[in-house]
CBM1 domain-containing protein
Amino acid sequence: MKLAATIIAVMATFAAAEAASDGNLVGCQPGTYRCAGTTGWEVCNTRAVFVNGGTCPPDTVCKFFKPSKSPYCVPPKFEFPKM
């Protein structure tokens, strides 16, 4: 029984390490978004890992709008209104 508990603990450690592979020690909050550079965005999945969410169309860049906690594909010189 102790062997099974040890194996489960080791597997949980590896799962936590995978979730933190982006350098964030606690992973991300599932359902949150971020821009992946300027070419697209990522979404945090249920395993607390950011995955590709989409690619911006040509002649647009990803900009994150903090008040709505959402990424938007907009023209490169676009500025969000001051709130």
Remarks:
- The helical segments are 2-19.
- The chain is about 20% helix and 30% strand.
- The longest helix spans residues 2-19.
